[in-house]
Amino acid sequence: MERDSRVIVGLSGGVDSAVSAWLLCEQGYRVEGLFMKNWEDDDTETHCSAEADYADARQVAETLGIPLHRANFSAAYREEVFEHCLREFRAGRTPNPDILCNQRIKFRAFLDHARRLGADRVATGHYAAIGGEPGARTLRRAADADKDQTYFLYTLDQEQLEAAIFPLATLTKPRVRAMADSAGFANFNKADSTGICFIGERDFQAFLARYIDRRPGPIVTVEGDEVGRHEGLAFYTIGQRRGLNLGGRADRPGLPWYVAGKDMTANQLVVAQGHDHPALMNHGLLAGDWHWVDGQGPDQPIRCTARLRHRQPDQPGRLAPCADGRRELIFDDPQRAVAPGQSVVIYDGERCLGGGIIDERLPVERSLVSGAA
């Protein structure tokens, strides 16, 4: 792609997208910005936060002297991301809306909108790298291992990778902040956004209860003893400690409690004491809904590394296809808090191969595919 091509940068109001736009301007691209609104909410705090973000994006665009467009993708987000997440929560699973947002909104709705505006490509402030040739693009880790976001980007296909630019691929976060300060961006020291995008900093259970009915039931130990009451299985995830209200029990002194499982039929939340209780550990998993960056993925068992969550150190294991279309991943070492509904993302060195959605936690003795790689 010629350097004088037209690129629209998703300006979120944060420092990463701001420096991405500045770098592209410096490299000779014809740069424009676009501020996306992906969530409609009557909450005053959320509305004010969105307007503050837009003000930061506008200041960046004015400093760079580039146009700033504004688009509302909230209807698409609600239909394609939020409703999907609600279905998953109701089923007792733990979805990752940020991954779906990247696939359906930031690199689909945004990309389509940018093309309607006449852009050749889009850019974002994600920490990731794109390699390979047209038709055989690869998704690779960013230089800043702590900020690498390939875990959230594994669903991107060849068309989306061909159209995308990740200007921060070789930079560290401290360097990005220093560059933003030098460029005169007011948001150079702005805190990174945290939490689920449509919930933000609000209480998770209280927000979700606006959309999902509470179904209280017993909290039971792995031995079957009732030790408390839960508000509804949708509001808890495997490995969770906070919000169980089980601390300080005279009959159960000792280590803190963690969610170890859910019995959807009996409406029971299963808990165990101790961060590394055996009930929280699994040697393997079954996952479906696989997406491969190259479009097809391996058709034979492979050795690989995997992440069950963002920033988790790579975990080595063996991935093998199953007869039912899913894939089985057996880890070399037991893994804690494997949560159905979350993504498992597969790597070969620096290259992100793809990933799938965890269906089931799998003890090694229940392996569906025998043999070792």
Please characterize this protein's 3D structure:
This protein has a six-stranded antiparallel β-barrel with strand order 12-15-14-13-16-17. Helix 1 packs parallel to helix 2 (44-64), helix 1 (15-26) packs across helix 6 and helix 3 runs antiparallel to helix 4. The model has no long low-confidence stretch (mean pLDDT 91). Helix content is 25%, strand content 29%. 39% of the residues are buried. It folds into three domains: 6-183, HUPs (Rossmann fold, 3-Layer(aba) Sandwich); 213-275, Roll (SH3 type barrels); 279-366, Elongation Factor Tu (Ef-tu), domain 3 (Beta Barrel). The chain has 373 residues and is an alpha/beta fold. Strand 1 (6-10), helix 1 and strand 2 form a beta-alpha-beta unit. It is built from seven helices and 17 strands. It has helices spanning 15-26, 44-64, 74-90, 97-116, 158-163, 173-183, 204-208; strands spanning 6-10, 30-37, 68-72, 121-123, 129-133, 136-140, 164-165, 217-221, 226-230, 257-263, 268-273, 281-292, 302-307, 315-321, 327-336, 343-348, 351-362. Keywords: ATP-binding, Cytoplasm, Disulfide bond, Nucleotide-binding, RNA-binding, Transferase, tRNA processing, tRNA-binding. Its EC number is 2.8.1.13. GO terms for molecular function: tRNA-uridine 2-sulfurtransferase activity. The active site is at residues 101, 197. This is tRNA-specific 2-thiouridylase MnmA.
